[in-house]
Amino acid sequence: MAAAIDEAAAAPADAAAPTEPEPAAAKEEPEEEVAEEEVALVEEDPREHLNVVFIGHVDAGKSTLSGNMLYLTGFVDKRTIEKYEREAKQRNRESWFLAFIMDTNEEERAKGKTVEVGRAPFETEVKRYTILDAPGHKSYVPHMISGAAQADVGILVISARRGEFETGFERGGQTREHAMLCKTLGVRFLLVVINKMDDPTVQWKKERYDECVSKLKPFLKTCGFIIRKEVKFMPISGLVGSNVLNQVDAAVCPWWQACVDAGDHNTTDATLIGCLDKLTIEGRSAESPVRIPVLDRFYERGTMVMGKVESGRIAKGMKLTIMPTKQEVKVEQVYVNETTPVFSAKPGENVSFKVSGAAIEEICKGFVLCSAPVCRAVNKFTCQLALVELLEHRPIFTSGYTCMLHAHTCETEVTCSKLLSQVNAKVKPKPGAPPRPICFAKQGAVVIAQLSVPETICLEVFEDMNQLGRFTLRDEGKSIAIGKIISLDE
Question: I need a surface site. Which of 124, 304, 329, 475 has the fewest CB within 10 A?
Fold first, then answer.
């Protein structure tokens, strides 16, 4: 529709002034250059940019917490909040008003369930952030994956309310699957917030907080998180805002300051935003080749592409290659936060950019825009695979097993071509000894396998670039395995 409107608007202008296109262009160019010079100064912002994804079970309070963070940091005004309060009251859902900041469509507001990944920027004096509010319902896990694939930090929202924590954490609850997917998709830090501490069934009791933490720690360790370095815990109230920007009143929660002073559960900051400000993401290199997995594309007076800069630096005028089609394009303009034009964007930035040389139908989600040397495109690869939770009616993983693969922003069908060996962490293989071949594997096993996909996809070896070298296998709406790529086969 937007493309049709743009073309219709452009046609009369071209017809009306066929002999004067160059003067018109000459008048516009200086204005564009001035605007870009001003924005280029902003682009050199020394503050680090972090993508923060909110994950957790349905009704844990993810949208309310993310909406309140925007309000408390001044990125949503009070008038807007009052409008949402009136709307929520009309729906007899007074406590949902903060969630309306992130849940913008009618379906989400009517049901109180996030469907699409909500996006919103905010900043502090120390850092700039993009909030990714992921859906919690199991029907929308693919949407959650696309959000978590963009994230550097995960905020796992746990409801402390009696019954809600147990429902989310038991098998079938999304707390487990979301935490595992976060680690698989490359989230560097996980902040576990025990929400709804002000609920009448909890009343900021330390016993309930400790109970939730003690049950979560062993599970997060099995997901691959290093608890002491990568996971932090804190109690909050997303609705009231306690421990979000400002610390909870000592009269309400007298034990929290003592926990912070002692560094209990790896937390030395009393508030969530204070904790985020002190996180540092290492390993980002602006000097590496450009890698931008395509999250979406659309038409707006040209072909626009959305994605996260995983490595390298993208700049106006740069020539990139679309993989796996090997088509070359030129970057005409780069935007951050969807609307702010900038001269260049560094690793970690969520960008949208206009390209010339390719039509919208020639770029698909899961493609990768690269600079030389380009990303490999393969239809067969060797990987290390951890079988986390197989289906009850398909308890054996063997050659011929078919399911869905999620790698960065790519989603495709995949088949196990061959099981090569099983990894036993307790037994060290003898030097030079050939791996012991296997015919099948059960839940809990770690195997070396060769997987194949029907069409070529863009991947990297995990050791070279972990963001494009890890993946998840899902079957019938359930995550069954996580893996990392060892080698890419011709």
Answer: 124
What are 159-218's pLDDT values in tens digits?
888 888 877 777 666 677 778 777 777 788 999 999 999 999 999 999 999 999 998 898
Token pair of 385 as six digits: 């695979």
Answer yes or no: are the C-beta atoms of 299 and 2 closer than 8 Å: yes
The answer to whether the CB of 365 falls within 8 A of the CB of 296 is yes
221 lies in the same domain as 348: no
Taking the mean position of all CA atoms in its chain, how far away is CA 246?
Answer: 26
Same structural domain, 271 and 160: yes
51: β partners: 130
Q: Is 67 helix (H, G, I), strand (E, B) or coil?
A: helix
Do 361 and 247 share a structural domain?
no
pTM: 0.76
Are 270 and 156 within one domain? yes
Residue 175: domain span: 49-278
Tokens coding 367: 């493609």
The verdict on residue 30 lying in a domain is no
**Residues 361 and 399 placed together within one structural domain of the fold:** no
Last residue of a domain, one of 278, 307, 328: 278
Query: Comparing C-alpha atoms, which of 415, 394, 393 is closest to residue 404?
Result: 415
Cβ–Cβ under 8 Å, residues 99 and 83 = no
